[in-house]
Amino acid sequence: MLEGNIAGPLALIGYGLAAIGPGVGIGILAGNAVQAMARQPEAAGMVRTTMFLGIAFTEALALIGFVLFFIAGG
Amino acid sequence: MNELFELPTLFTIGDVDITRQIAYFFLAVLVVWAILYFGLRKPKAVPGKFQLVIEELVGFVRDGIAKDIIGPEGSKYVPYLLSIFLFILVGNFFEITPFVNYPITSRMAIPALLAIMTYVIFVFMGFRKNGLSYLTGIVWPKSVPVAMRPLVGIIEFFSTFAIRPLTLAVRLFANLVAGHVMLSLLLVTGFTYLFVEPFEFTFNPLWGVLWFLLGIAIFIFEMVVAFLQAYIFTLLSAVYIESSLHPEH
User: Fold this and answer.
1) d(Cα B243, Cα B129) in Å, to the nearest integer?
2) What's the longest Cα–Cα distance across chain B?
3) Are A66 and B69 an interchain contact pair (Cβ–Cβ within 8 Å)?
4) Chain B interface, mutation test: which of A15, A51, A58, A59, most B Cβ atoms within 10 Å?
5) CATH of the domain at A34
6) So what's the pLDDT on residue B13?
7) Is A59 in Cβ contact with B166 (below 8 Å)?
8) What's the CA gap between B125 and B135, in Å, rounded?
9) Domain spans, chain B
10) pTM, whole model, 2 decimals?
């Protein structure tokens, strides 16, 4: 375990790295959802619900990073 | 920054210290109860404005979440889903209510409690509906090739029993903490630039106004976040319950 001052900043960098993947993933997901809604407006409700679900599952990785940030940086 | 989340004791009842957290917790319970009681006390055939709003909310949870996700048997879970939806919504909106300005869901205890409740319900319903095949269906999934089953089983087991409740709680918590810190920082910075002695003369007051405007923009954004997080928590609770009722999907 690292001592003192460096543990906090390192944990912060780790969280930043952990947030990249979900960021890209949510971007792709939301973009495609907008495309689907534009092509088929009558399915917008279903697409929206599925989009929120997908975002929630993709976000999990960033959230694990967030928890680890608190554990390692605390 | 810890000052934002470590609250002084307001008063003491017996051995229990009442902080703002606890006080607002009971206030939120009271508000949810009052909304439902006064909204639906005397239901009229032609609803008034308030009753209309409440009926919209109830209908949204019942048709948009419970029936849509769980299916026809979803109406059994509407009371639970409606209570957590309204409670989280009120708790989140405390963040942007003037003079309250503190979201109770930004302390881990409350999201964790709600997530554990959902966890108990979906695990219990899974075992009751499917017996032991609920567990074996997760650790030994029939729909993948035999060689892959141990690996997928381990991943599925952890994602169902550990990651699900954890992310459910942390998502709500993290969003509200971020919102609270962001709002506080922007508004306090604006206030400092405009009114506090040493800064008042050294900076152009325009900076203070700019910070305040940014704070108000975030304020409106937080309204959306408050609703969205309540919606997502309820939606995911419904999805988890559905997936333990019909594990083959």
Assistant:
1) 11
2) 74
3) no
4) A59
5) 1.20.20.10
6) 67
7) no
8) 12
9) 2-245
10) 0.85
